[in-house]
Design goal:
The complex is a heterodimer of chains A (about 425) and B (about 475).
Chain A: H1 2-30, H2 37-58, H3 67-85, H4 90-110, H5 115-118, H6 121-138, E1 140-142, E2 145-151, E3 154-156, H7 158-181, H8 189-212, H9 216-234, H10 237-257, H11 259-269, H12 280-292, H13 315-348, H14 352-376, H15 394-429
Antiparallel strand pairs in A: 1-2, 2-3
Chain B: H1 2-29, H2 31-35, H3 41-49, E1 55-56, E2 62-69, E3 72-77, H4 80-87, E4 90-91, E5 95-96, H5 98-102, H6 104-107, H7 115-118, E6 131-134, H8 138-148, E7 153-159, E8 164-171, H9 179-188, H10 197-200, H11 210-219, E9 228-231, E10 234-237, E11 240-243, E12 251-254, H12 255-260, H13 264-274, H14 276-285, H15 310-317, H16 328-339, E13 343-345, E14 350-354, E15 360-363, E16 369-371, H17 375-391, E17 405-413, E18 416-426, E19 433-439, H18 445-466
Parallel strand pairs in B: 1-6
Antiparallel strand pairs in B: 1-2, 2-3, 4-5, 6-14, 7-8, 7-19, 9-12, 10-11, 13-16, 14-15, 17-18, 18-19
Helix pairs in contact in B: 8-18, 11-13, 11-14, 11-17, 13-15
The chains are: A mainly alpha (about 425), B alpha+beta (about 475).
Chain lengths: ~425, ~475
């Protein structure tokens, strides 16, 4: 256990150093005459990860030692890029990270066992759908999507939090019904449909609300997580096939009915045909990536501000311009490591519910990273959702650190069980 | 369940690895090409931060450089109007044109020949752009501009052995340094001075197309050099009456003489005997009817579909009329292919890119060619073109001590007086220069275009003798 936390400490120190060096580089390049306060604040926020590490040490946790440093690395790169692109937002982002870390510690402390949450599954679903509905009615529009709620002057993006609530609900329903759905023998679609009814209704409702908000990225994410969890719980390829067919049909209908969907797809297919209009953003993203080359222009030496929404949706191409393929590869590698460790924890999780929650959260993070990274680079059509831990934003930070907390807990319990088993074996051998 | 969870994890890992491969493509493999896009705003920013590279001719004579006036960088052109269409201009308001646009990234010192070089910006910023060395010979270009005189028209001269463009001139022209001030006048002038007639002007070729018809007829076995043709004053094809130039009539004559005297009636007979398919195929093989791959955007011209042409249409294209359209650049390539034993070299104008310290960053000797005609056919047509200049319609192109091969054209067009054409190459036994001259509404090819071609040929041969005949 000691070596596990020791390794974590070293990696976290590395991530914090990376962030501070990056912040200092931006500062000396772009704002040499100004006070160093932002750099200090950013460094303090990154030290917060070491505080969490301390808490893990004190509580003797056996949690995975790679997830937290991977998230710290992404947060550090995000902080550096936000300071470079929007210096006035640095302090706020540092505060969001601190808030997220506080949420992480709180959840790790309170949620000793996920099974307790299972009782509130329907409450989670109701709360999630209500939040989305309220956003549709009372939300404010920013960047073409009505996905924000103003709470006391702070814009909150409920969709990020709802993501986790729905995962809990799906996991509860599936854990309960999976035995009935995986029985060998003849398939009774109608009866099965009844068993999954609440989940299907909830998913459909969420998707409709998101489409009304024009938040297509999140809709795609929810649906992907839904299908993945259905597959993990039941292994039924007929469900997966039906789900993908429904996705194709729904996507085709959306393309047909909604102008904003059509524009996104058309712009993706041929941005040059819309170079000065709807395709401007994605073209600027491509030029930024191209300008970066292998090693990038260096922090502060490129022109990522030519991209609209450079510090939110387009932060990844901005990294590509100033840090080059070295930067973008590092970010993708960090996601691969983070999501990989999350899946490792999910595979080892005990109990169907906990395993499903873990798998759902891991899928959500990985898929979210792919949707926005692929979207902002024109691998797939661009739909603006935050890149986990990287993009500026408070709601996303809290939701992502909460997700991290859940997975850290799952991994710790899995390790604990394994140790018990080993101890018992050892005792038996003796 | 654990196995399926792992499967989902693997799927996501595959997606992210796919993203990595795609990123490698965008940033490293296609990045340099993408960065060159004229729409990339980074080019405009680099233009403010960089001293623009110079443009030089093949002997390193400066054609364009830049100086700072009143805190602003200003482009200077050595002989602006003569090179306006080739070099283009740099206008803050109206953007870039021609080579200035095409090679803007090089002139701004931001080409990325290799992915590694693309990343060198990381280590330090370029302050001076790279120089372009062109295949152009300033002496030949000057001769071409003079030969055009006050006519509207174009001259394109190539080295047939490589495709290197020695001169490319278009008239009427403009002062590229005064584009900002003169734009309202230039853009509305009915004479279209901004149009590059050499690459973008599309004209009926008239009799300058006869070498193509001749090559097709010889290639298809429908005629030999000993074939005789009827050159009456006129011929009627399905009710369409075609007459000779100024109603000349020579009676029965040999194929080389009919070619040398540019007898329309004889070529109608020859074309009808050959058929539309071989003629259009030969024209296409020589590069007509398709946009040439060139440093500048070039027009495709037009070749009719042989299946829908009919006998009357076939009779018209047999002497270069009907719906045929060609550009001077295309006709220069035709002349060069005939000169180069049937191999059409791809025309090009960028010889080298040089760093400010003179280091050669990129050099191009040629861009390949394609077999347009069998060499035997090409040399027969070349021999007949020699005859046309020795004792035919092209005598005005004769040069002392050099055997010139050429073909005149006098093309009827819907916009007034005939367009005068001349395509030629020299010396006929080992050609080092091939050209096309077009003079809009200027009259008879042999009377106005052939003398103009003569001046340019002479200048080119003189220039090549000066450098020991190197290509």
């Amino acid at each position: 256990m000691g070596s596990r936390r020791t390794r974590e400490r070293g990696l976290l120190a590395g991530a914090a150093a990376l962030g501070v060096i990056g912040l200092a580089a931006v500062h000396t390049t772009l704002h040499p005459a100004e006070p160093w306060r932002p750099v200090v604040v950013g460094g303090v926020a990154l030290l917060g990860f070491l505080v969490v590490h301390g808490a893990l040490c004190v509580s003797g946790s056996a949690a995975d030692e790679i997830m937290l440093p991977a998230a710290a690395g992404l947060s550090a790169i995000g902080l550096v890029m936000i300071y470079r692109l929007r210096p006035e937002y640095l302090i706020r982002q540092a505060a969001w990270i601190a808030l997220g870390l506080a949420a992480l510690v709180l959840i790790l402390g309170v949620l000793r066992d996920l099974r307790g949450v299972r009782r509130y599954a329907y409450l989670c679903a109701a709360a999630g759908l209500t939040l989305l509905a309220v956003t549709v009615v009372a939300g404010v529009e920013r960047n073409g999507a009505r996905q924000w709620l103003l709470l006391g002057g702070v814009a909150v993006e409920p969709g990020e939090l709802v993501k986790l609530l729905l995962v809990v609900f799906f996991a509860a329903v599936l854990a309960e019904q999976r035995a009935a759905l995986t029985l060998p023998g003849r398939r009774r679609w109608r009866a099965e449909f009844g068993r999954l009814g609440p989940m299907l209704l909830c998913c459909l409702g969420a998707l409709l609300l998101l489409v009304f908000q024009r938040d297509l990225g999140l809709a795609m994410l929810y649906y992907g997580v839904f299908i993945a969890m259905l597959y993990v719980a039941t292994g039924r390829m007929d469900y997966v096939a039906a789900g993908l067919a429904a996705f194709a049909a729904g996507a085709a209908l959306c393309y047909h009915w909604f102008g904003h969907v059509r524009v996104r797809v058309d712009v993706w297919a041929d941005p040059w045909a819309h170079a000065s209009g709807a395709g401007y953003q994605i073209l600027q993203g491509l030029y930024a990536l191209a300008a970066g080359g292998v090693l990038g222009t260096g922090l502060g030496a490129g022109h990522p501000m030519l991209m609209p929404a450079s510090y939110t949706d387009m932060i990844f191409p901005a990294i590509g311009e100033e840090l080059g393929a070295a930067g973008t590869f590092s970010v993708v590698a960090l996601y691969l490591i983070l999501v990989g460790r999350m899946f490792r924890a999910a595979v080892r999780a005990g109990g169907a519910f906990e395993a499903l929650v873990a798998a759902g959260v891991a899928t959500a993070l990985g898929l979210q990273a792919f949707i926005i990274l692929g979207g902002s680079t024109r691998l797939i059509p661009l739909t603006g959702i935050p890149a986990p831990f990287l993009t500026y934003g408070g709601s996303a930070a809290v939701a992502n650190f909460a997700a991290l907390a859940v997975l850290l807990g799952v991994s710790a319990r899995a390790t604990g069980r394994r140790r018990q088993v080993e101890a018992l074996r050892g005792a038996a051998d003796r | 369940m654990a196995r399926r969870t792992a499967n989902v994890g693997r799927l996501l890992a595959v997606l992210l690895v796919l993203l990595l491969a795609y990123l490698a493509g965008v940033q490293v493999v296609w990045g340099p090409q993408l960065a060159r896009s004229p729409q990339n705003p980074r080019l405009a920013i680099a233009a403010e931060e960089t001293q623009w590279g110079r443009i030089l001719d093949r002997h390193l004579t400066v054609l364009a450089d830049s100086t700072v006036q009143g805190g602003r960088q200003v482009r200077r052109y050595a002989d602006g109007p003569s090179y306006a269409h080739l070099l283009g201009y740099r206008s803050a308001r109206y953007g870039l044109a021609s080579l200035e646009m095409r090679y803007d990234p090089e002139l701004l010192g931001m080409p990325a020949a290799t992915p590694w070089e693309a990343s060198l910006g990381f280590f330090g910023r370029t302050v001076r752009g790279d120089d372009l060395v062109l295949t152009i010979d300033a002496a030949v270009q000057q001769a071409a501009a003079q030969a055009l005189g006050d006519h509207r028209g174009a001259v394109v001269a190539l080295d047939p052995r490589t495709g290197a463009v020695l001169a490319l001139a278009s008239r009427p022209t403009f002062d590229p340094a005064a584009v900002d001030a003169r734009w309202p006048v230039l853009s509305r002038d009915p004479a279209a001075p901004l149009l590059d007639r050499a690459t973008a002007g599309q004209y009926p070729p008239g009799s300058s197309f006869k070498p193509v018809v001749l090559a097709a007829a010889l290639g298809a076995g429908r005629a030999t050099q000993r074939t005789t043709l009827d050159c009456a004053a006129s011929v009627s094809v399905d009710g369409l009456v075609i007459t000779n130039f100024e109603h000349e009539q020579y009676g029965t004559m040999s194929l080389p003489r009919a070619f040398a005297m540019s007898c329309n009636v004889a070529f109608v007979h020859l074309g009808l005997a050959t058929g539309a398919g071989p003629i259009i195929r030969t024209a296409r093989a020589l590069g007509l009817g398709q946009a040439p791959r060139f440093d500048l955007p070039a027009a495709p011209g037009y070749l009719p579909d042989p299946r829908t042409l009919g006998r009357r249409g076939l009779a018209e294209i047999s002497f270069g009329q009907g719906s045929l359209l060609v550009t001077p650049l295309q006709m220069a390539v035709v002349a060069a292919a005939l000169a180069n034993r049937g191999v059409a070299m791809r025309p090009f104008v960028l010889l080298q890119v040089r760093a400010p310290d003179g280091r050669v960053l990129a050099a191009y000797a040629e861009h390949g060619g394609r077999d347009a005609l069998p060499s035997g056919i090409a040399s027969q047509v070349a021999a007949d073109m020699v005859e046309a200049v020795r004792d035919g319609t092209g005598t005005a192109a004769q040069l002392p001590g050099v055997v010139v091969a050429g073909k005149t054209g006098t093309a009827e067009n819907p916009h007034g007086a005939t367009d005068a054409w001349f395509i030629a190459f020299a010396p006929a036994d080992h050609p080092t220069v091939a050209l096309a001259v077009l003079l809009e509404n200027a009259g008879v090819g042999g009377q106005v275009a052939a003398p103009a071609a003569r001046q340019v040929l002479a200048a080119a041969l003189r220039a090549q003798a000066g450098q020991g005949g190197r290509p």
